[in-house]
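ok so I'm stuck.
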Amino acid sequence: WFPTKESILLALTERAAEIAVQTIEDAITGETDPARRLWLAFRAYLNALVYGDSITTVLLYEYRPRDNEEWAAVSRLRERFDRTWDGLLHQAVGAGCVRGDVNVSIVRLLSLGAINWIPMWYSEQGEMDLDEILDHFMNLFARGVFVPEGAQPWHGEGHQASPRQSGAAGR
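replied:
not stuck anymore, here's the structure
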């Protein structure tokens, strides 16, 4: 019995975070190769999103950081989830599998953002199964999209102040 709708959402979100973290940790246990660990973690997480019970998607669509004691446990689990991914990426950097000049937090956010959307468009009747999609994703992750000669057409553009950085109001 739950006294409020918020308490139901809290319980579902906490359970979803526990499942996500445990799924990843179980998948990488015993594997020592950093690149393989990343692939296994992405695969386990993607499979949990697509084939697991729908509770995992609650974490994606309903979790918002809240500043109250009731949500503290969920926030800690979410931080553990993020630390798990950051740890995997740092291990890959340390092993030379991932470039050392990348911002690991941004890589985590961008790669999980891509993975998190797959359940929205994936179909078992599509041209690729989940492992093929993941292999394609990992190839993009590993090699990028641009060819070396055209790899940085924006070079220097990102170092200009954005409207938020320069104090201009957004529209």
